[in-house]
Amino acid sequence: MKPQVRTVSSEAIAAAAALLRNGQLVGMPTETVYGLAADATNADAVARVFAAKGRPSFNPLIAHVPDLAAAELHADVPPLARRLAERFWPGPLTLVLRRRAESPIALLACAGLETIALRAPDHPAAQALLAAIKRPLAAPSANPSGRLSPTTASAVVEGLGDSVALVLDAGPCVIGVESTVLAIDGDRAILLRPGGLPRDALEAVAGTLARPDASAAPTSPGMLASHYAPRATLRLDAEAPEPGEAYLGFGARDGDLNLSPTGDLVEAAARLFESLRALDRTAARIAVAPIPETGLGEAINDRLRRAAAPRS
Ligand code: TXA
Ligand code: MG
To answer: How far apart are the C-alpha atoms of 164 and 142, rounded to whole Å?
Structure first.
């Protein structure tokens, strides 16, 4: 089924908020590009975002919030980040900050990292949606992985088709390139992705931007992935646990936890990071049942292989 496309109105916003609350995905206009929005606190909905985009691995997503006060519920905001947010939010700036333990945002949205990317969008429809749902919205650009970001509602429909329930149409995006992504590490600002907010404007507030380097900040999905590994060792494709191992099951292979008793890869993706964390607290060795390499299974296995890789 093709998604509904509705011109922004208060009724359309209410309909979109209801769908989001129900775990469905909505095409959301922002000033940069259209986002594929999901309730960031709902791990299943976040997993559907990865499935819809066909992401080869779980890149962390940007959580959209109305303003700085809302961001502070999810992350520690050091003085430099505060100055940047006060100057540039709402706007095309994403800040990567230390995630707060109390944040209800699904770990999958942050790809299991200790950091979280937050942005307050400068678009009346996005702000209206955030006000209506009263929850943070995880939203990557609304394109299939590896394709161009959409700047119109019809491009969203063309790219993502029936995986999105409703697209809010607010016409073409004003900025048209994604937000600038800055990691804040103490008093250093590290440019992770150039974007809609130019360097000059940022440097006027933050001083010279640092280049990403492996020690300071994750830059690519590969580097990002290596940031998350449980303390426990992992054994993959395990048909059954050996003595002393906690077993993370899948489908009919039941264990201490089961990623999805019905073998549903979307559900498994939604539970992956929370399950690894839970087993990590109880065991020094974790064995994981075989996960098929289809659909989200590719991303799940990618993540598991990285977590199982030898540690430096
Ligand atoms: O303009 C935008 O930013 C759009 C609109 C919809 O807001 N969104 C967007 O999201 O471009 P996405 O998922 O396509 O890009 C998110 C970027 C990626 O480069 C990702 O690696 C980075 O943000 N990112 C997210 N969380 C991160 C984290 N914890 N650490 C480092 N980078 C992170
Ligand atoms: Mg993108």
So the answer is: 9
